[in-house]
User: Fold this.
Amino acid sequence: MRRLAEYFEFEKLGTNWRRESGAALATFVTMAYIIAVNPSILREAGVPVEGATAATCLSAGFASILMGLVARYPIALAPGMGLNAYFTYVVVKGMHVSWQTALGAVFVSGFLFLLLTAAGVRQKIVEAIPKELHASVAVGIGLFIALLGLRSAGVVVSNPATMIGLGNLRSPNTQLSVASFSLMAILHVRRVRGAILYGILGATLGAWLFGLMPPAGPQFNFARLGDTAFQLDIPGALRLGIVEIIFVFFFVDLFDNLGTLMAVTKKAGLANADGNIPRLGRILTVDAIATMVGSMAGTSTVVSYIESTAGIAAGGRSGAVAVMVGLLFLAAIPLAPLVGIIPIAATAPALILVGAMMISHTREIDWDDPAIAVASFLTMVGIPLTFSIATGLAFGFIAYVVLMVAGNRAGKVHWLLYALAGLCLVRFAYFGRD
Assistant:
């Protein structure tokens, strides 16, 4: 254990096994919903549910462990929300291709990522983005996950007249969420480490006491593990054409991951003073390999999870967190029905609190510079209002380039940002919407 502690640089990061274990549990519990949600979405594409469940756990376990061991960051990975919807509704149903061919497209996009990472292109993209946009992405994602938490808690609901409105505060689940959030916030104010984890456990206990626990799912059948494994059709994906592969998987995965990476490392204080991220190449390599392995297991694109910030808020700082999260995902394969009984009322407050803490990055933005202020603002509001990290980033890139050129500062814009802004414009022209 001592050698492992030295490998993960516990002393340098000011952490220990107890703290990292609590952070891992907080991250896993906060993102465990993907075990049930991802298969339910992929099922619409015809993917066998039990095979998709196994693929979800296996890919998340493998990717998180690899991230922890190779990149040594507290970043957990799993099949991405949003991208699984692209897989099902855009590629399979919209383009009328089989789910096996769609998995082949996911593999090809992961391979392209690996080539770009090996060539240093993805690293240069991260380094070319201004520090202010890094900060605005973190804030935008904070607003995004807080909105998700408020909606899941029932505090905010859709309203046909005003788009959103106040939910039913008399609902038992909403009241449990409010009580859990209050406990988390009070413990956080008192600087109690593990405040988020304690709040989640408290809400789970409350749900059990008041009969609010969701029912467990059916027992898992190990005989169905092979329903999705190695079913991908790469030749079929290549026959689709490179445009579909790039714009449906490549673009969204690229910017969703960049946004999440910037937010997580900034929240954990793991970036250098100049804003650069140590071992960035390793992070991006793991991300690419994870997507390829996930497609072979039978699931849509695997991405870094913003819920990793829940573990970071609980004190997690090293790759040991990601390794333990990965082990928990592997252990969840036979226990998937039990993982599903953790109520949303227990995890939603964690998202709200983490989102609140991420707003602090607004102080890193130069609000006196109009170009930076407008680009940052559009990024921050674009992410939650469009429910897309990639779209918010696209707004920011385009606005930053246009306004810097309009202000006679074209020479101060990195050439890669011009390329990214152009790619974003092409993407909007191609899709018309996210």
Residues 127 and 276 are 7 Å apart (CA to CA). The radius of gyration is 21 Å. The mean pLDDT is 83. The longest helix spans residues 242-268.
